[in-house]
Every structure is written in C-alpha cells, then in structure tokens.
Design a protein that fits this description.
Strand order of the largest sheet of chain A: 5-2-1-9-21
Oligomer: homodimer
Structural class of chain A: alpha/beta
Number of helices of chain A: 10
Family (chains A, B): Belongs to the NADH dehydrogenase family.
InterPro entries (chains A, B): FAD/NAD-bd_sf (IPR036188), FAD/NAD-binding_dom (IPR023753), NADH-Q_oxidoreductase (IPR051169)
Cofactor (chains A, B): FAD
Keywords (chains A, B): FAD, Flavoprotein, Oxidoreductase
CATH architecture of the largest domain in chain A: 3-Layer(bba) Sandwich
Distance between the termini of chain A: 57 Å
Organism (chains A, B): Virgibacillus phasianinus
C-alpha cells in the first residue's frame, strides 16, 4: 500500500498547528508527515518584540519542535526551503529535495521596506529569534558605549520605531518599561533617552477604536514615548533618519531604527510561480491554491478576503491558527480518502495589544472595549490558550505567562 | 584656628584606603578632608576582567563611595582632575579648583599602547567599569550578529587578548568559562569560538614559577584557550590583528581585541610637572614626592624601588593598599602636628592569579606554591579581607565572594 506523503513547510503558527492536528488525526499507517523548518524550534512571533526590548528572554518565546511534535509520527527536516515546484510536486531545500502528495505552505512573512533608502542596510526588523536578540544587544551596546566616548553621543540613546501598527506599538510599550533598567545598568540619566514612534497615518493603530487609541497614546506618552504621526520615513542612515511631516523634512539622530511598518509574504511563494495577489496566494474557500488541488496555504502566505470589509483578513496569529485547523481537517480528509473538505470561516474573537507588561488595550467579543489591567490579563490568557492548544498542559506550564501582577 | 586641608585625588585602592584611614584617625576639628573622584563609586580594579567577560556583574565590583566614606567627616567632590599645580598648592578640576595644605595623589593607571598602530582606535582595555561592561556588550553583540549574516563571519567569535601577564591570563580564564554560556544564548557551535592569548615573552606570566605557569597553561588550553608566546602584536584593525612570531607575520581575523599588555601612570602626573621615572613619581621613603613636602603619592602613580631585585615593585592592589596605610599615617602626623613620619616597607604576602572561577595558581608566604581549588579559595579570602579592611563586616557581607564551591 502506498501511503500518501504530506509535507508541511514552515513551523510558524500555521505550519505548527497544522502538523500537530495531523499528527493527532492520522495514524502512522495512513500517511507520512514531514515538517520542514529552518530551525529546530518554533517561536511565538507575537512575543518577539519583548525579546527585542529585552523584557523577556527569547527562550521563553521559542519552543523546541520535538517538545510538541512526536518524532516517531512526524519526520522533522531541519533545512531551508529554496523553492517549490508545484507542477512536479517537489520542494527544493538547501541540502536536498522532497516530493509530496500534499503540500502545506506555511512559510510566513518577511519585512517589506518599500524601497525606502537605507532601510535594508541600517534598520532592524523584528522577524525572528535571531533578529530579536540582535536588537536587544544592539541597544545594550549603544547604552554601554555612551559613557565611553569623550563626546557623549545622544543618538546612541534614541530608538526610532517605524510603524505605529500592532508590532510597533507593542514594541515601544516594552521599550518604555525597559529603559529605566537600561539606565540603571549603564549609569545613564533616563531623561536623555528618547523612544520615537513614526507613523504615516494620522493616528497610530489605524482601524482601532479611537477611544482605545487615545488611551494607548496617553499611556505610552506618560512613560516617555514620543509620537510622530502623519510622518513618513524617507531615509535611514547608520546614525540618523530623515522623516517628512507636513511637507517638511526633519532629521533625527539615532543609532537604532527598528522597522515595524511593513511585512509581505515570504518571497519564495511568488518566485515559485504561484499566482499571487499582493505577494500572497489568494486561496480557495478550502484553503487550497487556485491551480493545484494538492497544495494548501496557511498563515501569512495565504490571502483570504473579508467580504464585509472588502479587504483581506489581517496576517495575525489568530487567523493563522484558525486557518491551520481547516487545512489540517482538509488534508486529513483527502489523504485518508474521504475527500470531504470544509470551508474556512474565520471568527475574530478579539484583538488585544499590549502596551508593556502593565498595560494593554483591546476589543473583544461583541466589540467590547477593554483596557488597563483587565486587558493585560486577557492578553496573557490568549497567549496561554495557544500554548495549551499546541502542546497541552505540559507546554503551558513550561512557557505560559502567569505573572499578571508584576 | 585654621584647620589644615587634606585633598585626596582618586578613589582607587590607594586613595580609598588613605581616606578611610584618615577619616578614622583625624577628628573633624583637626582637619578638613576632601576626596575627589570622577565617579561616585570605587571599584575593585582586580575584578574588572570578570565584568568584562560577563561572569560577574559590575555592581558586585563597585562600591558606592558613601557606603564607605562618612560624608559628615569627609567632603566628597565628584569631578575630574585636570591638572595639579604643586607650587601653588592647587588642583584644577573640570568644574572648579581646590586648594590644599596636604595632597595625596592616587590617580591610578591608564593603558599604554606603545604606539602600536590601531590599538588606540580598535582595541579595548579593561580599565574601568565603563570599559569593562562595554567589552562584555561588544562580545555579546558579535555573538548575536553571527547568526544574522548570510555569510557567517568567524572573526566575530574570535577574541584576542594582548598580553599574558596577570590581567590577560585572568581574563582568558574567565572567557573560557563564559563561552559555553554565550554559545547557548546565541545558538552557536562552541567549536567555532577561539580565545587567543598573545604574549611577547617566551612564556606567559613572566617571572612566575615555571611549574605554576605550566599548570596555568594546561588548565586554560584544556578549556580551549590558544597561546601565541614569543609573538608581538604589530597592528590592530577593526576586523583583524597582525602578529609577528619567529620573524614571520601572521594575520588573525577578529572583531575583538583586548589589550592587557601595558599600563602607565595617569599622565596628569607627568603633565603637572612632577619629576618622573617611567611616568611615575619616584617617592621618598615616607611616600612624599621629591620636591614637595606636602605632596604624597599612592598606588600606581608612585614608584618604589625593590632594593633586592633592583626593579620597581609591581603596580598591584596589595602594594597600593600598603602604601595607603603609610600615607595615611604620615599625613595624619603632619596635619595633627606631631611631624613624625614612618617609612614605607612593603610586605609581599603572596600573589594569586585566578584562571576562571574554578582554578587558580599562586605563590604565598615563604614561596609556597598553591594551585587548583585551594588557590581559588585563597584568592577569595584575599579579596574579602580587603573589603573587611575598607568597609567593615557590612561591606564584606554586601560585596564579598563566598561562592567557593560553584
């Protein structure tokens, strides 16, 4: 008997949940399941800004793949995907090649810098464990350098965050909490430190409820964050950025620019010849790619339109996890022979943005607004629920966030 | 009644012990005592290599001056000394000027780079809390960067230490202990890391007992340290060094060069017109400068010849502390009017060099050799004894090293 082979590319939210579900629903005699990932760990992308700020160690954010995947049920291949050849049902890896009967593409996002000069060379992005801890070290290095120069350079103490969306706002919130610790560690007057958020739209968190946006800005400004809204980042250099606000250029000396204003789907998708919309694969109702009945897409590489708003659903962890449940169900059906597939129906349960460990804002079921302490608790409950889903109580105990009162 | 004013410059081992002794022996009606120091803390220079390696936090190494000095008995001036005018009994500070009746110069050392090209620009020195924590951050930053570049650059994982004397050897010992932690933190294969010690003499720790030197080299080599003895550091660049061994040049790619092969007295001493020998003031028997009866010198700025060897006593903490006791006694005698001065007679009680937290070598009373566990305990006892002398049991409990079994 020829078992179908299922290959899952990427161990982000989408790929990981898909694999865990398949591991549970398919017996080892029913299918060969292979998971391919660059690292031997999964990480919670939504926690990386905390690692980057230095408020949470990255080992709390990452999860060893073999803590969740049973290696006697799933083959794990630690390798980098180079390209996909959907016509021949093959995937080329850096160190080999894989064939598949069913493919799940969960290759995630990459930073989009829109051709803004200097961003690729001089700005950091919060896209992986490696990147996040580099940002942490870069900030610490500049603080350590400050008292070692004859002419203290205030640009070492200025951190610019491009983008007032979710990631940018959550990151400045963590930075605001981190700065007093950094100042103590390196004997620096905290009034010399600047955290500047630059956002092109007239307000940060565009699309969020205005009352909550105001609450967030007040909370962050009280902790020293400066906002430059309606301002475009025009150029990034090693020691400064140039922004444009009200038609006028402004230069801000800084050694640390973090770009959190744009992501796009992994460019492998487009380069592999899939039909794309905004760089993503606009999937069918059952999460399959338009032209291939055996290729599913999950997470940030998949585009699903929200009929109500006429815009795509945002690339969030929540959506990726829900997609993964549909994908796992459908792959299992096809691989095990029933052939019945279900359609993906996202349910937005709510959105909570943290503003540091001690404050948050959110909108939950039925558009109820929450903020402050209750919102921080909800944020942690959401994070913990994911861990429970992914790896059961053991993983929850190991990696969960229970420190609601600190 | 006109109280004499005593000014102590520098809160290193010499200046600090002098001030503490004077504070005890002179009543507030007998003299005005002023201590001038750049920082509001004293630090144990002999522990800085641990801060630089990242094996001990710098807050363990530094001691707030007002933890030891009673501010109702001693005026503390946080300022930087610019120059001394001994003819007019004045000291110029960055933010003011002081007059004195008696002066104690304890301005310590600075790095001597002997004109080797690139050392001033590209090498680090372990000379202060600020420098030490910058080295720690520089190493961490390079480890963090390693997995973020398309072409991993092994020079980021190579640390070159120039000088196989006391500081250089103690530093590589700490680094050898630190590397496994760094590799775990940044997901790096520890076989890629190199720690290289470069020493011009045919052996490291020149002057030390050959058996102990062999023991030290074996201990360090077993933990991955490479030695280049009989090798001269010819040039330092941002991304490599050039050494010369057996007449042949050799290039070592490295992003981190730490220069621990030369110190000289603070150059303010020479610039202020004192008669100097090797940059230091060759003091009289009672620790006074040759030409000025009211100027004492203590620590690394003072040169005292060892009649037996015909060479100067080495600039160690042990000698500085002993000098300070003589200086404090003599200043007190002159200020309080008795006029009796004693001569400085150094007693070398022993010398212990650590090789990381778990190994050490030393020579103690009567030239007895010690190594291994017993030597590490002795090292800690010596350090603790100093704390007890400086600040009593309270300071010992706060900053002492009691972790002999880890």
């Amino acid at each position: 008997m020829n078992k179908p082979s299922i290959v899952v590319l990427g161990a982000g939210y989408g790929g990981m949940v898909t694999t865990v579900k398949l591991q549970k629903s398919l017996g080892i005699n029913e299918a060969d399941i292979t998971l391919v990932n660059k690292h031997d760990y999964h990480y919670q992308t939504t926690w990386l800004h905390e690692n980057a700020a230095g408020t949470l160690h990255h080992d709390r954010t990452r999860i060893a793949i073999n803590d969740v995947i049973k290696l006697n049920k799933v083959n794990f291949v630690k390798d980098t995907v180079i390209s996909i050849n959907p016509k021949e049902n093959k995937v080329r890896l850096k160190n080999g090649e894989l064939s598949y009967d069913y493919l799940v593409i969960g290759l995630g996002f990459e930073a989009a810098t829109f051709g803004i000069p200097g961003l690729d060379e001089h700005a950091f992005t919060i896209g992986s464990i490696n990147r996040a801890r580099l940002i942490r070290e870069h900030i610490e290095y500049n603080f350590a350098m400050y008292n070692n120069e004859n002419e203290p350079n205030d640009a070492r103490l200025t951190i610019v965050v491009g983008g007032g969306g979710f990631t940018g706002i959550e990151f400045v919130g963590e930075l605001a909490n981190r700065v007093p610790e950094l100042c103590k560690e390196y004997d620096i007057d905290k009034h010399k430190v600047r955290i500047i958020n630059v956002e092109g739209a007239p307000t940060v968190l565009p699309g969020f409820d205005p009352d909550l946006v105001e609450y967030a800005m007040n909370s962050l400004e009280a902790r020293g964050v400066e906002f430059k809204t309606g301002a475009l980042l025009k150029e990034c250099k090693a020691d400064r950025i140039i922004i444009e606000k009200d038609g006028k250029p402004e230069e801000i000396p800084t050694m640390t620019t973090v770009w959190a204003a744009g992501v796009r789907a992994n460019s492998i998708v487009e380069a592999s010849g899939f039909e794309t919309n905004r760089g993503k694969i606009q999937v069918r109702e059952d999460m399959r790619a338009p032209d291939y009945d055996n290729v599913f897409v999950v997470g940030d590489c998949a585009l699903v339109m929200n009929e109500e708003s006429g815009r795509p659903f945002p690339p969030t962890a929540q959506i990726a996890i829900q997609m993964a449940e549909t994908v796992a169900h459908n792959v299992k059906s096809l691989a095990a022979g029933s052939g019945e597939v279900e359609r993906f129906e996202p349910k937005i349960l709510g959105t909570v943005a943290s503003l540091g460990h001690d404050d948050a804002i959110g909108v939950v079921l039925n558009n109820r607004k929450v903020f402050g302490f209750m919102a921080t608790v909800m944020k942690k409950v959401i994070d913990n629920r994911y861990l429970l889903k992914l790896g059961g109580p053991g993983l929850l105990v190991k990696k969960g966030k229970f420190n609601i009162f600190y």
